[in-house]
Amino acid sequence: MRVTKAQASANRAHVVETASALFRERGYDGVGVADLMAAAGFTHGGFYKQFQSKADLMAEAAACGFEQAAQRAAVQSPADFIAHYLSREHRDHRGAGCTMAALGADASRQTDAVRAAFAQGIEGLLADIQNAKGDAASPDSGQGSRAETLETMARLVGALVLSRACPDDSPLADEILDACRGKAFGMREKSGAKAV
């Protein structure tokens, strides 16, 4: 039975979405092509009909993860975004969470294409945040500057990474999230910032 172009495109998108979640959950080295294709409901042999290499899929999956993050952030208030990002729920569900926190360290050891997908994803999130603040035209001006946005993003990602590095039942894991959540809210109130 022949697959239509539309179905082939939908199958490819499903593999990318599945890979995005699995890579976030297990890391790039923790997912083999056979396991990935089985999780997506396809045979291993179909992989190379859709992708040139696992590295190509890794770059596409990273872009998919960043797009999913942008969509989630667009429908949340800044306070809700921070509260969810630094929650135990987000910490404990890597596969549905932040691509930067789950794969940032792994990405630094990958191909230029994967690192470029991360750079593009980070730039996209920065632009979305700056646009939400209404100061995209002046990224280095006072409140809500690009530097402040980068600092906040790094604080949130770093807190999640440190919390995940602790055992699941560790009080320190929650303490890290609580301290950084409190600091993020305090910084927003002090500066009158409108977004993360």
From TrEMBL:
Signal sequence range: none
Hydrolase as UniProt keyword: no
The entry's keywords: DNA-binding, Transcription, Transcription regulation
InterPro entries per UniProt: Homeodomain-like_sf, HTH_TetR, Tet_transcr_reg_TetR-rel_C_sf
Keyword Secreted attached: no
Pfam families on file: TetR_N (PF00440)
Record PROSITE patterns: HTH_TETR_2 (PS50977)
SUPFAM superfamilies in the cross-refs: Homeodomain-like, Tetracyclin repressor-like, C-terminal domain
UniProt domain HTH tetR-type: residue ranges: 9-69
DNA-binding region location: 32-51
Name of this chain's protein: TetR/AcrR family transcriptional regulator
